[in-house]
Amino acid sequence: MEKQNKHDPKAWLRTRQVGIERTNPAARGQPQPQKPAMSPSGKRCWVCTQPITWGQSDTACNERCRAILYAESYRIARHKEESYRQNRPCNLKLSEWAETLRHYNWHCAFCQIGPFESLDHFIPTSRGGATWVGNVVPSCLPCQAAKGNLLPEEVKAIPRERMDRIARYLGRRAQMVSQS
After folding, report:
1. How far apart are CA 63 and CA 43, in angstroms?
2. How many helices (H) and strands (E) in the chain?
3. In the chain, where are the structural domains located?
4. Cβ contact 121:76 at 8 Å
5. What percent of the chain is predicted at pLDDT more than 90?
């Protein structure tokens, strides 16, 4: 693991990506292994879906996955703070965000090539979007910059079929949440 320089803002991101590549076979471009038998508790890790066999956490199978979840919970907390400052709704839960990240194999939802680097609002908050499971997707920085502050139908830099695919996924997620 690289030595972190406190003046290098991308150092944390590089170490985080290395952690994801070690814990998530899909992030390394390898096929996913068969899921092992269920653990006695019946719970699976929110990051890598392995059975949780240690008693330290109900959501992570090891310390590395727990650190990733901690970083994502901090990301969600920052978005919640911003939403409350702007008086906008925000009810995104860590479990919902982790499920969305797993759906996209911890990659950008727009290009599906680069590792995700940020939480992107499909409908920007400045244009009426909220921070909830039906409006957030993982994004790499180039795709986030290409999308910008535009509504999905206004985006020209990202192919229409990709935007439609994401819209369908978010619609299914919103429907699942409203039914529960």
Report:
1. 16
2. 5, 2
3. 11-26+38-179
4. no
5. 51
Q: How far is C-alpha 53 from the geometric centre of its chain's CA atoms?
A: 24
89 vs 60: CA distance, rounded Å: 28
Question: Can you give the pLDDT at residue 11?
Answer: 56
Sign of CA dihedral 30, 34, 37, 43: positive
pLDDT digits (tens, 9 = 90+) for 141-157: 999 999 999 999 999 99
Amino acid identity for residue 132 in this structure: W
- β-pairing, 118-121 vs 136-139, is antiparallel
pLDDT confidence bin for 158, thresholds 50/70/90: very high
Beta bridge partners, 121, equal: 136
**Rounded to two decimals, what is the model's pTM?**
0.73
For residues 35 and 85, the model is more confident at 85
